[in-house]
Amino acid sequence: MEPVRPKASAAPGFGRMTCLCSPEGNPVAVKLVDVARQAGVSPSTVSYVLSGNRPISEETRRRVEQAIADLGFKPHAGARSIRRQATNVIAMVLPMLEDGQRAVQMQFVFAVLAAARAQGRNLLLATAEDGVAEIHNLVDSAMVDGVIAMEIQVHDPRVPVLKELNRPAVLIGTPEDPEQLVHVDFDFAAAGAMCVRHLHDLGHRHIGWLGQSADTYAREAGYALRARDGALSAMAECGLPRVWSPMTATPAGAAEAIEDVFGQDPELTGLVVYNEQALPFVLSRLREIGREVPGRMSILAICPDDLAEHMVPAVSDVALPADELGRLAFERLAALIDGRAQPVSTLLEPRLNRRGSAGPPPR
Amino acid sequence: MEPVRPKASAAPGFGRMTCLCSPEGNPVAVKLVDVARQAGVSPSTVSYVLSGNRPISEETRRRVEQAIADLGFKPHAGARSIRRQATNVIAMVLPMLEDGQRAVQMQFVFAVLAAARAQGRNLLLATAEDGVAEIHNLVDSAMVDGVIAMEIQVHDPRVPVLKELNRPAVLIGTPEDPEQLVHVDFDFAAAGAMCVRHLHDLGHRHIGWLGQSADTYAREAGYALRARDGALSAMAECGLPRVWSPMTATPAGAAEAIEDVFGQDPELTGLVVYNEQALPFVLSRLREIGREVPGRMSILAICPDDLAEHMVPAVSDVALPADELGRLAFERLAALIDGRAQPVSTLLEPRLNRRGSAGPPPR
DNA sequence: TTGAAAGCGTTACCAT
DNA sequence: ATGGTAACGCTTTCAA
């Protein structure tokens, strides 16, 4: 029984297009059999040269590699993914955030992207807004080998989905019940406590916390809650009153929050600010009300280093290590995909950068 | 000749994993033939129900859809991409930018992502740092149906690559020689000119331009060059001297740039600021040197609306319509993928939001 | 309106 | 060390 239809490689439709041109003049995809023919070997040999799964003689390898280069052959990713169990693509699930968080978010994405590309893996973006169904789709249709979910909230609907996934998943952030899901996070509680203790060590006995917007707490963003509670616990342990206020990132919001904490403790001499967007407004406001930094008010911030560095005066800060977290999340995921067990929980420790915005309290 | 090895679906290895469980208890991928069997139809019928490429009786369709739902079947994307000419995935090529640009960049990514997801397409991220070879890889290995490249520079090495691609590509930004590549951009020249003319209309005859960092101009970033040159041309057309300075986004940088433009024209009464990061520092500095806004100095900014709105005083601005540009870029690409010809060039017109930071010059 | 079967491009098993 | 060939899971032509 001879095949009735023309051999595919003789007139191969209009698939991928690379170097070769058909007699008609339109560009045409180069495939593995074309390479095999050109090199005078069998298709399986070409495949083995590509995968390195079998010893190949030096001479044959040379001829095959030459043919690949000459024809500009690139293996078809889809075809490959049928036989291999992997696509070399991972997904990253982003929440749709308010404008203020975009810069941080991009930092995470870049960190993961850079780490993935360094290993030759590709990164697909998904949004949480698609609903958790989208995560299932990407995995069940075998588009991705694993998933990184970022901005995990305390009660996050994505967590149970990822748990049931049958594909590796890594969380950036800490849910209330991780259920054995591998996750990496910054130790926000330690960061908050570290700031309070630093002021306490300098001699401050009246310390306040200026946090994120009220609705950030309302939606139970893990980082906001944990940082604040770490700070409040440290205050309590130091025998200080727990003074704090949420803060909207506007000049008026900063003024209001400052008034709020002064209302709670009129003798405040130290403030910890965990609100990147509002930090400049806090400094302006303190200047306005005659509390110059650090002479009459000591300030610490949890914010990116470059932001803290450019304030006037430069602000001592604890920075979220987003690059490191992103890289670490990818490494965990890559390891899981390769079948290597990973620690369920990893917390990165905070580090304080002194820039002179915090000194001893005024006598 | 009976097949020697067991039928695949009888003991189908360990492929994708969904609802079904093998006798051994491990989860197993549901495939199209499983659906066909469950519905009592042939595989081709299931395929046609999925694709809608052939009329199906109501009764059959119902049974097939029921089986798909019952088994939780999701078509294997890779297998599908072999026969179809498409993967339903597009790539977005990002440059690795300095920190300051991250927020804007994320806005573009989100806009494209949202538009793509709304059409059921997925977004793959690539970085320019991989080198242009990576673009070729993604396309030649048939991983993506098309490419969006953002932050196109005046002389951009990606442009010739995209031109040779044999797959649709859309640029966000305008290269010197678009070579018929479809591109969308904000009319930065018009934006710059609009700001200058607005001040001129208010009666200002001494206007300066405070721009991006010197190295942004050095690497010939299209947006920086075009905005500045649009402004300088407008100054010339209004018969004014062309006064401008690059500006580093630090308090010192802002002070220096302000000194620079005052050196060029000591009678300046209006300033246009195209430097999102430095805008707060410019306002602080003007306050410091006794040029309060808008009484003794009128200010216009090219920056995001929410930033301008939160300055003290709120700053009249022209905003980069990143969301619209991202959405538009995706729509152009989707249309090209679907074979519909698109306009080569699209420029979005600037719009000025008045917030009261610009008034008549002091008499 | 439906089914059978021949691909799609790559991989891996079985031979030699 | 290499080749032949049957999968992989889905699509589409051809036939009924």
Cross-sheet strand order for the largest sheet of chain A: 2-1-3-4-5-11
Shape of chain A: elongated
As a percent range, the share of strand residues of chain A is: 5-15%
Structural class of chain A: alpha/beta
Describe what you observe in this structure:
The structure is a homodimer of 363-residue chains. With 363 residues, the first copy, chain A, is an alpha/beta fold. Chain A has 14 helices and twelve strands. In chain A, 42% of the residues lie in helices and 14% in strands. In chain A, α1 packs across α3. The N terminus of chain A is likely disordered. At the A-B interface, α4, α5, β2 and α6 of A face α4, α5, β2, α6 and α12 of B. Chain A binds a DNA duplex (16 and 16 nucleotides) through α2 and α4.
Secondary structure elements and pairings:
The structure is a homodimer of 363-residue chains.
Chain A (H helix, E strand, L loop, with lengths): L31 H8 L3 H9 L6 H14 L5 H7 L5 E6 L7 H17 L3 E6 L4 H9 L5 E4 L8 H6 L5 E4 L9 E5 L1 H14 L5 E4 L3 H5 L3 H16 L5 E3 L5 H14 L5 E4 L5 H10 L9 E5 L2 H6 L5 E3 L3 H16 L7 E4 L3 E2 L10
Parallel strand pairs in A: 1-2, 1-3, 3-4, 4-5, 5-11, 6-7, 6-8, 8-9, 9-10
Antiparallel strand pairs in A: 10-12
Helix pairs in contact in A: 1-2, 1-3, 5-14, 8-10, 11-12
Chain A binds a DNA duplex (16 and 16 nucleotides) through helix 2 and helix 4.
